[in-house]
Amino acid sequence: MSPRWPLLLALALAAVPCALGACPAPADLKREDGTRTCAKLYDKSDPYYENCCAGAELSLEPGADLPYLPSDWANTASSLVVAPRCELTVWSLRGKAGKTRKFSGGAYPRLEEYRLGVFRDWSNAISALYCRCS
Question: Cα(39)–Cα(61) distance, rounded to whole angstroms?
């Protein structure tokens, strides 16, 4: 076996796309002026992770409290990213009613993978939210 084999293996593994796909790294959630962003919601996801976190995006500042999402965002989010040391709490019904779930710092490229109930998932199901950072 060639002594270059481990190096070639490491390069090949580095070229494999990660599970985050096209989602930004949670630590990179900052506005242009350098201030912190608590989370970002995206209206597109895909069975292929590299196509997730696309389309229109909604940026949330720390302390964002939206019991009623804007009409174009109600039941629209299908991918999201939460900054480190932040937590996004979402509700399935307007006015912070219905089912709830907390997303901690990290990327969630396919909300279809997170169960809302027996027959539903969180994709296109977020109607209210609260984002806080420590």
Answer: 7
Q: What is the pTM of this model?
A: 0.81
Q: How many CB atoms lie within 10 A of CB 61?
A: 13
Q: What is the mean pLDDT of residues 116-133?
A: 94
Residue 2 has pLDDT above 60, yes or no: no
CA geometry: angle at 20 spanning 110 and 17, to 5°? 120
CA 67, CA 93: separation in Å to the nearest integer?
Answer: 9
Structure tokens at 5: 């084999």
Q: What is the DSSP letter of 8?
A: H
Query: Which two tokens mark 62?
Result: 């720390």
| Secondary structure of residue 43 in the 3-state scheme | strand
Residue ranges of domains in the chain, CATH in brackets: 19-133 (2.60.20.10)
Q: What is the amino acid identity at position 13?
A: L
- SS3 percent helix, strand, coil of the chain, rounded to 5, is 15, 40, 45
Q: What is the pLDDT of residue 13?
A: 35
Helix (H) or strand (E) holding 13: helix 5-15
